Amino acid sequence: MKHMLNSTKTVCFLSTALTSTILLLAQSPPSQLDAGRKQFQSRCALCHGGDARGGERGPNIVEGQARNRSVQELRTIIRNGVPGSGMPAFKLPAGEEADLIAFVHSLSAPAAEGLISGDVRAGKAFFWGKGHCGDCHTIWGRGGLMGPDLSAIGRQRTLPEIEQSMREPGATPGYQVVVVTLTNGRSIRGFARNESNYDLELQGLDGEFYRLQRNQIAEITREGKPLMPPFQASADEFHDLLAYIVSPQPFEPAMSSVVSKPENWRPDEWPTYDGRFDGNRHSFLNQITVENVSRLGPRWMFPVPDAKELEVTPLVVDGMMYVTSGNEVFALDARNGRRIWEYERPRNKAAAGEPATGVNRGVAIGGDRLFVGTPNAHLLALSRINGGLVWDAELADYRQQYSATAAPLVVNDLVLYGIAGGIRGFIDAYKISNGKRVWRFSAVPAPGEPRSETWVGRGIEHPCTATWMNGTYDPNHDIVYWTTGNPCPEFNGDDRKGDNLYSDSVLALKPTTGELLWYFQFTPHDVHDWDAQETPVLVDTDFHGQKRHLMLHADRNGFFYVLDRISGKLLLAKPFVDKLTWASDIGPDGRPKVLRGTDNTVEGTKVCPSVEGATNWMSSAWNPETRLFYVMALEKCSIYKKWTVSWEPGEFSDGGETREVPGEPGQKILRAIEIQTGRRVWEYPQKGPADSWGGVLSTAGGLVFLCDDSGAFAAVDGKTGKPLWHFHTNQRWHSSPMTYLADGQQYVAVASGSNIIAFGL
After folding, report:
1. Torsion 447-452-453-455 (CA) sign
2. Closest C-alpha to 141, from 384, 381, 451, 317
3. Are residues 88 and 49 in contact, defined by beta-carbon separation less than 8 angstroms?
4. Which of 43, 219, 282, 697 could make a disulfide contact with 737, Cβ separation 3.0–4.6 Å?
5. d(CA 590, CA 41)
6. Angstrom distance (rounded) from CA 225 to CA 479
7. Closest to 392 measured CA to CA, from 361, 362, 415, 425
8. Which of 108, 137, 164 corresponds to the end of one domain?
9. Which of 529, 531, 555, 708 is catalytic?
10. How much of the chain, in percent, has pLDDT values that exceed 70?
11. Is 168 in the same domain as 46?
12. What is the pLDDT of residue 259?
């Protein structure tokens, strides 16, 4: 991972004696701040300390959770106190209250909220010119990679903190300069990004990462001074520079980006969400086998801060692992889980539903960049080296219930992304280089467009049909395959009569333009919330005596499909669950033969599969050696109800509800399907509450790893389904496993609860 940088130039950042000027730049006038300081000393310092960083009776109100509190939040705390904490309520005259709030807010308010007196344009010229700051620091997508990214510094630090660090540069955690002498005599100078008694993650000044074990190191020399010298400039230059770095600016991507090609991927890596473009979680690694899997055990664990139920699949490239949670991305040493860098951005407090929960399933990699969605429906590009923000593209307005939860898909020089929630689903393509949108395909045609006639009624005004999982790609035929979600309202189709295209479908798209090549709809006019967001798995194999380019798809509606992925022709459709009452069969034209009495009613109708589906977004796999397709199935039914619904812009209604069938609990069953006929070769029933969302991984070692519904991580024989190994994590699964090599050893990793756990022999 090289970068373009002249590391010998002077590093910009931090200043001469300007301490008295900083507080004058705060948003409140100096007279109010001075009055507020007096109020604080007389009323608050006894508990919170004279510097507000905590005393014997009260907590630190400058750092941690106190940072970024709004004026209104501070006002509420002062007026109401904090029940149960010992913090009393204060009834102050309006003027004194305003003075106190202004002072306390100034102590922890982000610098970006201040009124900076400098000239932004002059500061920009200084940053990229005389100051040489951009030689080492990235800001808004442009610059060097040898120092911390400064794009968010105005939101992360206060004005006094920035001024202090500019006057007296210190060793920012992860940027301590060391010279490492290896046992082979080689010396490397760089930053100790993470260090323990057992290993060292070193970012060399050459831009390479070195993941070193202690037995590889002969000596470490620690340089006492940071690489960055004190910043020497006039007061005007300082103010100009400060104004530039804390002011929101457009992104200016300038770092190189080498396109990732599948032929460049190594079998020891896991470079995409499903391991490869074809969406198939089968690995050709074979160190862990049927014979030795009993010796498998946990090798390391990384707890993701403030996470609850991770849905991420880790990616591993060049010995680095990348994991996500909500608005956070972590780069880890794949050998031991040691953190190398972290990217974080604030969440939107006003967001509801998915934008507030922060679901995220992972990143995509394209050259020297990572791509990740955010809960508030943005797509970000980050530097793989330091996590610096390269560009930020808004997908949609999160206030309309849009969110971004999936791992993106990188295809040549584009990054493709779908959307979760919202009024109308779509698939976007953005340039890797600058985040500019190239095309958008709407998952539902607008009124008057072809196939809009499949929506009869007002439902087309709010059709949903989200695209919340990532697609797969066939590089030989240059086709992207993307599945779509259910129409809205979910349980009442009275105001959207017709097939409701392209809901519950798979779309074959030209990746350069978004042109629709063909589509196949699994569940026309869906009223059971059976979206088709199960991964389309691409396979090249013999089918009925003929070499075919196939797509395998176990759908939420209970049928297993085999399609010709070039033409979209249906080749096979067979049930893969026993509890299937809504349709008797799939006709030669691909349309289900719907049974009478399965429409939703006001009183409630029992229909199988359940609303969770016969399977869901958890990953499936195909093993070319056993020639079996593995899927986590759910045998369960639901009672579906509908009611009258009226829709207004910005408001959503399901149009009904579901509940479990009394006395009929569901069961998760891992099934192996022979694709020529749809026959079930073996199955592995599980004992659990049937409420987990874990998928499977197939390997050349003859194993299928699964997230057992009981909370165990387990392995079975891929040929027979015989259980061979398990490890109890006692977690409710929301992820699927992956595998990789590090230092020549095979690991299997999975997100369990709030932890990433890696297993090895």
Report:
1. negative
2. 381
3. no
4. 697
5. 76
6. 54
7. 415
8. 108
9. 529
10. 90
11. no
12. 52
In which residue are the tokens 């082979």 written? Answer: 184
Domain of 96, CATH number, reads 1.10.760.10
383-430: per-residue pLDDT in tens? Answer: 888 888 889 999 999 888 899 999 999 999 999 999 998 899 999 999
Reported in sequence order, the residue ranges of 693-744 that DSSP labels E, i.e. its strands, are 696-699, 703-707, 712-717, 723-728, 738-742
Same domain, 103 and 170: no
Q: The domain containing residue 695 runs over which residues?
A: 262-760
Q: What is the pLDDT of residues 281-308, one digit of tens each?
A: 999 999 999 999 999 999 999 999 888 8
Q: How far apart are CA 531 and CA 529, in angstroms?
A: 6
CA distance to 109, 312, 490, per residue, from 733 (Å): 39, 11, 25
Q: Does residue 700 contact residue 275 with C-beta atoms inside 8 Å?
A: no
Instruction: Name residue 104's amino acid.
Output: V
Rounded to the nearest 10 degrees, the angle between the axes of helix 71-80 and helix 94-108 is 130
Which residues are registered as beta bridge partners of 471? none
Note whether 152 and 96 are same-domain residues.
Answer: no
Q: How far is CA 696 from CA 84, 440, 622, 675, in A?
A: 47, 32, 10, 17
Sorted by sequence, the CB contacts under 8 Å of residue 491 that are 6+ apart come out as 527, 528, 529, 600, 640, 641, 642, 654, 655, 656, 657, 658
Residue 730 has pLDDT above 50, yes or no: yes
The arrangement of strands across the sheet holding 723-728 comes to 282-283, 696-699, 703-707, 712-717, 723-728
Beta-carbon count within 10 A of 184 CB: 7
Are 475 and 466 within 8 A, CB to CB? no
pTM of the model: 0.87
- Asked if 368 and 258 count as a contact pair (C-beta separation under 8 A), the reply is yes
Rg value, the chain, Cα: 28
Whether 309 and 217 map to the same domain: the answer is no
Q: What is the pLDDT of residue 158?
A: 79
* C-alpha atoms less than 13 angstroms from C-alpha of 741 in its C-beta half-sphere: 15
Same domain, 745 and 620: yes
Contact 578, 610 (CB under 8 A): no
User: Rounded to an integer, what distance in angstroms lies between the CA atom of residue 610 and that of residue 558?
Assistant: 10
In this prediction, residue 590 carries a pLDDT of 96
Cis peptide before 684 (omega within 30 of 0): no
pLDDT of amino acid 36: 86
Annotated catalytic, 413? no
